[in-house]
Amino acid sequence: MTDKDYVVKTVDVHKTYPNGIKALNGVSLNVIYGEVLVIIGASGSGKSTFLRTLNRLEEIDSGSIEVLGTDINCKGSKLTKLRAEIGMVFQHFNLFPHLSVMENITIGQIKVKKIDKQTAIETANDLLKKVGIYDKAAAYPEQLSGGQQQRVAIARALAMKPKLMLFDEVTSALDPEMVGEVLDVMEKVAKEGMTMVVVTHEMDFAKKAADRIAFMDKGRITEIATPEEILTNENNSHLRQFLNKIH
Amino acid sequence: MNRYTKTGWNLAYVAVVIGIGYFIFISSSKVNYIWRWKAIPSYIVYKSHDAVNSPFNGFVEGYKNGKLIVKSLNGKIKRFKIEKPEVKKGDVVDQGDELGYNISSKAGPLLVGLYTTLKISVIAIFFAIIIGIITGLMRISKNPLLKNLAVTYIELIRGTPLLVQIFIFYFFIGTVFNLDRAVSGIGALAVFEGAYIAEIVRAGIQSIGKGQTEAALSIGMNYFQLMRYIIMPQAIKRTMPAMAGQFISLIKDSSLVSVISITDLTKAGREIVTSTFSPFEIWFTVAAMYLALTYSLSFLTQILERRMAKSDR
Ligand SMILES: Nc1ncnc2c1ncn2[C@@H]1O[C@H](COP(=O)(O)OP(=O)(O)O)[C@@H](O)[C@H]1O
Ligand SMILES: [Mg+2]
């Protein structure tokens, strides 16, 4: 396998927050095209921090990160272009409350990618069908349920035609009855061959959709293997404890 | 509080207001002051008599349908629109004689002053918003140069009296750059209010959650797009009440530019007071005119706020 096959390639990444908390303590990890990588780990183990370093929402102290063949340590239009190719979905949706669902999905296409409005709307309509809320195009985020909002957020990210999608605990802020509808959409996206890095506690999803699962512990990845291997792992006591706790 | 006690308190309020009014009335009648309210309206709007003079020698043929018909010596007939003719049929008129006059309403000095105040305020608000947005953004910038410049500006402006700033603007900056007194006055106001608007802008931007910035950056927006399409629209909506308050302050503060001889509403009031003996009436009238201006503004912003609130539910 050559470097070109990697969507994400990180080497020995370290990150300490200004308050002295060491969130990442040497993370080296590769993701190949079309792979679905699920990251699990206790709260505070550094999963979000790691995910956010991949599109440089968080700066790193040392090590290196290459995404889609570009060093993440770039600036200006090179950085914004790279970010546009990396979709991100957040725990708290972060939809733009002053924009309608349609505008949420088209604004990036129109303002960032300079796509004409008509094409952008067509793309948005296709995506709204895909995530199952075609009838809500004119609604504002506030008028939608949590599950619907999160599906709009996924559509907003997909509208940029990203080559990599990052999901950060996208179902943990949802009422239990809405978790399924969001996970279904994510599975659909995975089946279409999207490269995905997913932080989640939903082990059923991980079993079904993940090619590999990484276990994060105190700022390090201590295990990375197929779902089966992870779920049956007996050597890593922290992993065992973690899996027992969430079941 | 039940409905009846509430009504009771409202009645008490009316009683107290009437009481205060009566107290003012009694006290003022003790100071041996002659109230002359009658002349006051003419300082706002007055009737002007515009004379119409004959352009030639001739005589008056008659007056019909508000028009005076005059025949010149060489037989030419001309009609003049005149409300109050001062000549009658058969009169001989020479060139330049007054045929009569029309009455028109003209703005009195107080209304002219109000217009000046409004004009100064609108222009100053426009520039104050621009200054406020730019320095507000500089204020939250991570770049120490921009940030420190903004902080220095805001602290200097907020730490000194507006009156002193107006004098500095007029006597120093105005002299150095050869500025018109109106420009000095508007400049001083805009720079002064800009510092306060900067703080409102800063607070508004910081009140928008970090998640909005992250979502915008993650779809590839740059700083300008982030501010223009995501942060500012939300921040402006949130800061509307504070902004409206600041604009109202600006209108009131604009009365200070009268010290550099700009004939705004306050200066107009002062000029009338020196030529009449009715300071009480004039200042009450001036106050009422400011109130009308500021009240209309707050009424407008309330409508605007309601409409904005509707637009995003
Ligand atoms: N912005 C921040 N400033 C300071 N500390 C932070 C910040 N974000 C996260 N942390 C700390 O870094 C550690 C890792 O956090 P995070 O990456 O959010 O973990 P996870 O997503 O696995 O729960 C935690 O101890 C957390 O308190
Ligand atoms: Mg997290």
Characteristics:
heterodimer; A: 247 residues; alpha/beta; six-stranded mixed sheet; four-stranded antiparallel sheet; 38% helix; B: 313 residues; alpha+beta; OB fold (Dihydrolipoamide Acetyltransferase, E2P); MetI-like fold; 10 helices; binds adenosine-5'-diphosphate; binds magnesium ion
Structural class based on helices, strands and sheet pairing of chain A: alpha/beta
Radius of gyration of chain B: 29 Å
Low-confidence stretches of chain A: none
The CATH topology of the largest domain in chain B is MetI-like fold
- Portion in beta strands of chain B: 5-15%
Beta strands of chain A, count: 10
- Unreliable runs of chain B: none
Shape of chain B: extended
Helix content of chain A: 25-40%
Describe this structure in words.
The complex is a heterodimer of chains A (about 250) and B (about 325). By secondary structure, chain A is an alpha/beta fold. Chain A has helices spanning about 45-55, 75-85, 100-110, 115-130, 145-160, 175-190, 205-210, 225-230, 235-245; strands at about 5-15, 20-30, 35-40, 60-65, 70, 85-90, 165-170, 195-200, 210-215, 220-225. Chain A has a domain at about 100-160. In chain A, the strands form 2 sheets. Chain A has a 6-stranded mixed β-sheet with strand order 6-7-8-3-9-10, sandwiched between helices. Chain A has a 4-stranded antiparallel β-sheet with strand order 2-1-4-5, covered by helices on one side. Helix content of chain B is about 65%, strand content about 15%. Chain B is extended. The interface of A and B includes residues 55, 92, 95, 111 and 157 of A. Adenosine-5'-diphosphate (ADP) binds near residues 23, 41 and 43 of chain A.
